[in-house]
């Protein structure tokens, strides 16, 4: 098998109707995944978001009590741009999310509630591509989501969820990790790329605190660059890449 064959990304599975995206912070999905979500909702699929925090510790110049509600509003507006109307927050503390049973239980409950076939999360590994260090929140939520996809289907793990009326859901068929250094699949970003840029731009307060660059130029350049680089492994079509774990 040649190196070029090994490196090619396969099309994402498309025989599903419901997806649940679980990430740590507002804007996590907008940095690279939103174009795929726009394409999916265009096709009539249901996508919902669950965020572990409200991103209240994410802007140095804003007190968390002001920052959290503002970033929640930006996230809901951002989701609406790509056709997502249901956005829930688990209210874990931003910056100090702890991997463990409490986080797994909260995510398993969300999976039981939404009953998705596809679960999406963000890079759960220690680094981005072996170079930049990942944040503890991303690692904790990503790992907990991979585990909770199984927890959700086992009635004897977190039996209190069943007592609360959340019946086991063993219907998760894939967990797809965006931002992985070892992607396996991709989605054509072309139909959703403009909306992905608009979706990221809804996080304007965060972007303006992050960079002095014009926000629209920043968002368009960043997302287009990501999509085009991924497209080199996907028939030269701009794309969003995922590492897919079948279940």
Automatic annotation (TrEMBL):
Keyword Zinc: yes
Protein name: PIG-L deacetylase family protein
InterPro entries per the UniProt record, alphabetical: GlcNAc_PI_deacetylase-related, LmbE-like_dom_sf
PANTHER family noted in UniProt: LMBE FAMILY PROTEIN, N-ACETYLGLUCOSAMINYL-PHOSPHATIDYLINOSITOL DE-N-ACETYLASE-RELATED
The organism of origin for this protein: Streptomyces lusitanus
Keywords, ordered alphabetically: Zinc
Highest taxon of source: Bacteria
